[in-house]
Amino acid sequence: MKRFGIVIDGTAALPDELVQAHDIRWLPMYVILKERSFLSGIELSTADFYERIKAKDVVPETSQPTIQDCLNVYESARGDGYRDLLVLTIATELSGTYSVATTAAQQEPSDRGRIEVVDSRSLAGGISLLATAAARLREHGGSFDDAVALARRMAGKVSILAAADTLEYLRRSGRVSGGAALFGTLLSVKPLLEVADGAVRPVDRVRTRDKAVARLKELISQRAPENARIHACVLSTNDAERARTLGEWVQERYHCVEYFQAEAGPVIGARTGPGVIGLCWYPEDRA
Fold first, then answer.
1. Tens place of pLDDT for every residue, the chain, 287 residues?
2. Neighbour order of strands in the sheet with 159-163
3. Are the CB atoms for 198 and 225 separated by under 8 Å?
4. Can you give the pLDDT at residue 181?
5. Structural domains for the chain
6. What is the CA angle 243-158-262, rounded to 5?
7. Long-range contacts of 243-250 (CB under 8 A, 24+ apart)
8. Is residue 115 a contact partner of residue 74, using CB atoms and an 8 Å limit?
9. Of all helices (H) and strands (E), which one includes residue 216?
10. How far apart are CA 42 and CA 154, in angstroms?
11. Are 113 and 83 in contact (CB under 8 A)?
12. 144 Cβ partners below 8 Å, 6+ apart?
């Protein structure tokens, strides 16, 4: 049997090459468009998703995996030689995925191995950075218990700051706290957002995309000293070129022990809309 498997949910942002390199498994998530459900990334590509939501009458929704979806993923991983499984999910405040994944794990016979489900207290690149940390630990001989302890210790410790083109999608979904107080009805502004301990919070607002990027860099610089050793993921929703430019700045300013750029995908895009760029990171000494 292999040491242990790692499973992430469909809100994570992780490039295919890292998924394959670390043999990380996905819990499926669904995007709902005009009452039709699509398996994100399989039945609905990122490009197709953003083309479809251009229509003003399309309000995208999302759905967590079913218990059977989770059981299928667990069975597949065990069929490939993984007895114990570490499952990393989006924060419970943002989705019921943790509950479903846990319920499915409890249905598995205990003599087949352990399944530990950890609430990442995060989303997107925050989940991904926990997954790559666990994968490195595994590759250096760490035990399953070590990986579970690492994931629980790091949960909620990944910083995420992002600039969005609009607050409209987050307002519709109810996934942003304090939005009404900070922004009122000014949905045309470019919001700066923070993900902290399971909540998405507006932290500032500007009028243009260029100012949003400049302000995003200022906020990052306030929280991470220049030349700090960090593990970093730059993410975007259908805006890879702007994310690449942000990533170049991050790599020039910081010593990136780990760095990757990733598309957040349709499940996150359904909540934020296109045009989001952001940085997810944690200091090297926090792992």
1. 578 999 999 999 999 999 999 999 999 999 999 889 998 878 888 889 999 988 878 888 999 999 999 999 999 999 999 999 999 999 999 999 999 999 999 999 988 999 999 999 999 999 999 999 999 999 999 999 999 999 999 999 999 999 998 777 766 655 555 544 455 445 568 989 999 888 888 899 898 999 999 999 999 999 999 999 999 999 999 999 999 999 999 999 999 999 999 999 899 999 888 999 999 999 998 76
2. 199-206, 190-196, 159-163, 276-283, 229-237, 255-263
3. no
4. 42
5. 5-29+64-154 (3.40.50.10170), 159-286 (3.30.1180.10)
6. 30
7. 243/277, 245/213, 246/213, 246/216, 246/217, 246/277, 246/279, 249/217, 250/220, 250/279
8. yes
9. helix 209-223
10. 30
11. yes
12. 3, 4, 84, 86, 114, 116
Length of the chain: 287
Residue with the two structure tokens 């083309």: 51
The span from the CA of 162 to the CA of 194, in Å, is 6
DSSP-assigned states of every residue in 187-208 = TTSEEEEEEETTEEEEEEEESS
Bridge partners, residue 206, by sequence? 190
Structure tokens at 125: 């690149």
User: How far is 213 from 219, CA to CA, in rounded Å?
Assistant: 10
8 A C-beta contact, residue 225 and residue 253: no
